[in-house]
Write a structure and sequence with these properties.
By secondary structure, the protein is an all-alpha fold. The protein contains 25 helices and no strands. The longest helix has 100 residues. It is elongated.
């Protein structure tokens, strides 16, 4: 079966408009689960209800229970069990002349045959359902609603086999019937969505876009308190998928890709219509390819194939043959008497008892596995946390050691500089002494000799740079307008020298030091609240 047929059958199977209608006064939502997590529990409840109906000899309730089991099995892709249940229901409906249920059973058979790719048989059974509902439509509003669904299913069937003229006629009948019943816009949007898909296949892209935009607006704006909110909201999966198809045909690949991705996100968020993922991934791969994203296209295509094989591999040739064999034997099954049927029910009860035991054992094993996984994960988390703490501690100790080493070196540099200041003082005193004891010319010669041997400032710069690597570069990068004297000034501020010490070392007055600090603050753009010393020490 191609991807298009898969999508349509899946859409038909999970149509939430009719499958949730109360039939014969029975609350079906109590027995049909909204997610796969409740399937086993729902099967147990339905079997219990069927046992009670058998004890009470309530044929109608037995038929309804078998019908609901069929719906449940189909939702979970259990088509063999669904087939068995629906034929049992048909046998009882025929024996009791229950036309209402016969119409619904024919519809289910139509769905099953469509899933197996038997379009002709599928169309035959949906036509039988339509004829029954048309016959009783005048006296029963339930049949009138069911007829709307029949038309919808017929539309899907004929789209599946590319009979677009018949599909269009049935979609028009479906919409006409919905108008007669005065269904609200939300329910009509299901029909609009199907007509949009039909329009896409016919190349009527503007019409398709109009239908899909109407549906998109309605489904996205459903209020939370609306009946069956989650079920209706999940239909956005199909709207997004069709919008992706539409914009792909239009060559608007970015929009197509966005809607396909939104479709996948909605499936995951609502945990709904997951069987549609292979189809969406397949078309997303085509969009990636058209958008020249070849690696993403390859990955999406590979994942699509894997999911398609795992989800729909159940519909094998062997199962198709099995379906045909059971269909041929059904006439023989219908001739069996009620005694044989009662024996089958007893056997079914035993099987269900065994199933319940298996279910309890499976639950126990599942809980044990969960505990084991939890314990292993906790051990891994604790180990990871301990390793992280050790790494953080090592990093902290290394940073601390580096800070302490820098502090020691800066202290050594400060000591050296202070010694330099003392030497400068001594030189100044010697200069003054020479000036007093010698003549002017002789004094100048001696002073030149003393000054020429003084390279202490160069030594200071060398030592400062070796301790505070990159300090001058960072200063110059942030404040290129600073002069060489101002750079020296900043270095002394970083070493926490006083204004007097800086004045002596730079050979200027203390007031000049204050003026220089004021200019530095101005060039650096510092406000009054920011300390110049703190700012420079962080560089």
């Amino acid at each position: 079966m191609n991807f298009t047929a898969t999508l349509l059958c899946y859409c038909m199977l999970l149509n939430p408009v009719i499958n949730r209608l109360p039939i014969m006064g029975i609350d079906r939502a109590k027995f049909i689960p909204s997610s796969s997590h409740a399937v086993d529990e729902s099967i147990v409840r339905l079997n219990k209800r069927m046992e009670e109906a058998q004890n009470a000899k309530d044929t109608t309730l037995i038929i309804q229970s078998l019908f609901d089991l069929t719906q449940l099995y189909m939702t979970e892709l259990g088509y063999t069990k669904a087939y068995e249940s629906i034929w049992k229901a048909l046998k009882l409906a025929q024996e009791s002349s229950d036309s209402i249920h016969m119409a619904r059973i024919y519809q289910n058979l139509s769905e099953l045959y469509a899933i197996y790719g038997k379009a002709e048989s599928s169309s035959d059974y949906i036509h039988r359902a339509i004829q029954i509902n048309k016959k009783f439509i005048a006296r029963d509003s339930v049949n009138a609603t069911a007829l709307t669904e029949n038309y919808f299913k017929a539309t899907v069937n004929f789209i599946t086999v590319d009979k677009f003229d018949l599909a269009g006629a049935y979609s028009d009948s479906c919409l006409h019937q919905a108008n007669l019943l005065r269904q609200d816009t939300l329910h009509k949007c299901y029909i609009f969505t199907a007509k949009a898909y039909l329009a896409i296949q016919l190349g009527e892209l503007v019409l398709a876009e109009n239908y899909l935009n109407q549906s998109l607006k309605v489904f996205e704006s459903i209020p939370v308190d609306y009946p069956n909110y989650a079920i209706h909201k999940s239909y956005l999966v199909f709207v997004y998928a069709y919008l992706g198809d539409l914009y792909f045909q239009m060559g608007r690949y970015p929009e197509s890709k966005a809607y396909y991705l939104q479709c996948l996100d909605t499936m995951k968020y609502l945990n709904s219509h997951l069987g549609l993922r292979p189809y969406v991934l397949y078309n997303l791969a085509r969009t990636y390819n058209s958008n020249l994203e070849f690696e993403k296209a390859y990955n999406a295509m590979r994942l699509s194939k894997h999911m398609y094989d795992s989800v729909y591999g159940i519909k094998s040739e062997q199962n198709i043959q099995l379906l045909e064999v059971r269909n041929n034997l059904q006439a023989e099954i219908n001739k069996k008497n009620k005694e044989l049927y009662q024996k089958a029910l007893v056997l079914s009860q035993k099987e269900h008892s065994l199933f319940r035991i298996k279910l309890v054992l499976a639950a126990i094993v599942f809980i044990i596995l969960i505990l084991i996984v939890y314990a292993r994960n906790k051990i891994h988390r604790d180990k990871f946390q301990l390793e992280k703490e050790i790494r953080d501690r090592e990093i902290y100790l290394k940073e601390k050691a580096a800070e302490e080493l820098l502090e020691v070196k800066n202290k050594e540099l400060t000591t050296y500089t202070l010694q330099f200041i003392e030497k400068e003082k001594t030189i100044a005193e010697l200069n003054e002494l020479l000036k007093n004891q010698m003549g002017g010319l002789e004094h100048k010669k001696q002073l030149t000799s003393v000054n020429s041997g003084s390279n202490l400032w160069e030594e200071f710069n060398h030592r400062f740079n070796s301790v505070n690597t990159g300090f001058y570069e960072r200063l110059h990068s942030q404040f290129p307008q600073l002069s060489s004297t101002e750079l020296k000034h900043c270095a002394l501020i970083k070493l926490n020298f006083s204004g007097k010490e800086m004045a002596h070392l730079l050979g200027i007055s203390t007031s000049s030091v204050h003026i220089s600090r004021h200019r530095l603050r101005k060039k650096m753009g510092l406000d009054r609240e920011t300390s110049l010393s703190s700012f420079i020490s962080k560089l």
